[in-house]
Every structure is written in structure tokens, then in C-alpha cells.
Design brief:
Layout (H helix, E strand, L loop, with lengths): L2 H13 L1 H14 L1 H21 L5 H17 L10 H7 L4 E8 L4 E2 H20 L14 E8 L5 E2 L6 E4 L37 E6 L5 E4 L2 E5 H7 L6 H10 L28 H14 L6
Parallel strand pairs: 1-3, 1-6, 2-4, 3-5, 6-8
Antiparallel strand pairs: 7-8
Helix pairs in contact: 4-9, 6-8
The structure holds zinc ion (ZN).
């Protein structure tokens, strides 16, 4: 501070003027409008950070842009739909719960039951590993627990402990065993599981539906379905190709039956061209999360 200014400040201080000015400045800074301004500045900074984290590799950028524009122009309720796998995850605070629909007369041992739980966990971990630490995704780990099993007959499920809820002989309109709709998020997207015998703690977000002789796979917000024979052959594999692809649909990702994004070779969501999550698949999942996260305040 120049000497003349210091001298002026001393004189003003003696006059009490500086003290008064200081109080005015403090009052303005603490006023509601100043707080709103700081809030707005913080929001701008957050938006800037969100924009900054979209940094796909140059060779994938055009294809990713094409994919999102395709999704926006073909999904009927893209931004209104509230049961993507992301919504389920956030509603539960970072975990997913499953029910297994066993549409088969093949018996299941306790060991196989536990292998199936581990296999679902392993495949979801592959998807969510791509989100860890990225784009404000809030979870480092996503635990997956099978909380129920449905079968035609109790004798098919060869365990006696009560580690999972059992739904025996509860059949859908097509005759396939199902877990209680009262516990199924698909039917209770408001999170009210008051009619589920085990309450919210035993609700399930998705079903793994295994059917004798079923070819290929199907997937959506309700879960994933594939052949029982295929699944048992793949249950201990590192990559369970069809399950991974169907989980992609649960996250909202599309199929690519009739087109290929520019500059991209094979990838998981283009059926038959890759058997594991590729970098392109990972960036498509990030893009989906990026476009939904504001609904969670992230
Ligand atoms: Zn598909």
C-alpha cells in the first residue's frame, strides 16, 4: 500500500469511516443475493467440470456423438423414464438386488446358487468399473445380492438354509416361475414394498431369468433372460457374454442391428461382434450416466 494511501486509511480509520465501510461490505457479502450469486457461481463451476470430463478418445468421439443423437431421436421417453439400472442403483444407495427365475426342472445345489450370485456380481462389476471415479459416479463398488429364487417345485432347490426367499409355484401368465410381484421394483417404482413379505430389504430390482432351451438373450429394466444351458456352461467364466450384453440394455444402451457408428469396430452392444465390454461400450455407458446424473443432483 503506498504511504499516502496508508496515511489516508489511518485518517479515515480515526474518523470511523473505514469501520463503517467494512460493516457495509460484510453485510452485502452475507446478504441473500450475495449467497445466491455464490451458489450460481458454484453451479457454473460444476457445469464446467461436467463438460470437462467428457473426454473420449479422438477415434471414438464421432461414433459416440452419433450414438447419443440416435438414442435421442429413437427412444420414446428417454429423459422421462425412471427405471434404468442407474435409477435402481441410486434408489438403493449403491447396491442391486436380484431374484433368480429358475424355469427348468434341473435341480440346483447350494454351490450353484452361490456361483450364480457371484457371476452376476462379477459381470456388473465389469460395467461399473468403467464408471468408478468418473463423472461424479458416487460408488467405488456396487454390491449385488440375490435375495430370492423362484422355481416350480421346492425339491428343485437343494438347500435348507434360509439365505434367500423362496417363491414356489408362483407362475406368470406364460407358466414361468416368478418371484413375488409385490417385491419387484418393476411393479413398485415408487419404492413402496409394504406388501413384500420381507419388506424393502428383500425387494429385488432385477430378475435373472434362466429358461431351458431359450436361444440368445433378452434384457431391460426388469433384468436379463437367457438359456439355462448356456448360463450353466458360462457361470464360472470371466466374461459371460450374453449376460454382459443384456446388462447393457438394463443401463439403457441400445442394439445396433442395422447401423454401425463411424470409426468403430466390434463392440459388445453390436451383437456378435465382441464378447466383452470394449472401450466403446464403456464410453457409451459413461455417456448415458452423464446425461442422467443431474436427476440425482450429481
Ligand atoms: Zn441386445
Amino acid at each position: 500500500m503506498p504511504r499516502r494511501t496508508r496515511a489516508l486509511v489511518r485518517r479515515l480509520w480515526r474518523s470511523g469511516l473505514v469501520a463503517a465501510l467494512t460493516m457495509v461490505v460484510a453485510a452485502v457479502y452475507a446478504s441473500p443475493s450475495a449467497a445466491a450469486n455464490r451458489q450460481a457461481a458454484a453451479e457454473v463451476a460444476a457445469e464446467q467440470a461436467a463438460a470437462d470430463d467428457w473426454t473420449p478418445p479422438a477415434n471414438l468421439a464421432q461414433g459416440l456423438d452419433e450414438v447419443w443423437r440416435h438414442v435421442e431421436s429413437t427412444y420414446g421417453n428417454l429423459y422421462g423414464f425412471r427405471n434404468y439400472g442407474w435409477d435402481q442403483l441410486m434408489a438403493n444407495g449403491g447396491r442391486l438386488q436380484y431374484c433368480v427365475r429358475w424355469e427348468s426342472n434341473t435341480p440346483v445345489t447350494a454351490q450353484l446358487r452361490d456361483q450364480i450370485n457371484a457371476s452376476i456380481q462379477r459381470q456388473w462389476t465389469k460395467w461399473f468399473d468403467g464408471l468408478r471415479g468418473w463423472g461424479n459416479f458416487p460408488y467405488a463398488q456396487v454390491p449385488v445380492q440375490v435375495v430370492g429364487w423362484a422355481a416350480r417345485d421346492r425339491s428343485l432347490l437343494q438347500w435348507n438354509d434360509n439365505s434367500v426367499d423362496l417363491y414356489i409355484g408362483n407362475l406368470d401368465s406364460g407358466g414361468a416361475p416368478r418371484c413375488a410381484p409385490e417385491c419387484d421394483r418393476f411393479h413398485h417404482q415408487d419404492g413402496n414394498y409394504s406388501r413384500c413379505p420381507g419388506g424393502a430389504a428383500r425387494h429385488f430390482d432385477q430378475s435373472l431369468w434362466l429358461t431351458d432351451g431359450f436361444g440368445g438373450g433378452a434384457g431391460g429394466d426388469w433384468g436379463q433372460r437367457m438359456g439355462r444351458e448356456y448360463y450353466l456352461g458360462a457361470v464360472n467364466q470371466d466374461n459371460i457374454h450374453i449376460l454382459l450384453h443384456e446388462m447393457g440394455h438394463t443401463l439403457g444402451l441400445d442394439d445396433f442391428y442395422d447401423w454401425t457408428p463411424t470409426g468403430v469396430g466390434g463392440f459388445l452392444m453390436k451383437a456378435g461382434t465382441a464378447s466383452q465390454i470394449t472401450e466403446f461400450d464403456r464410453w457409451m455407458a459413461r455417456d448415458f450416466w452423464r446425461h442422467l446424473r443431474s436427476r440425482y443432483g450429481l
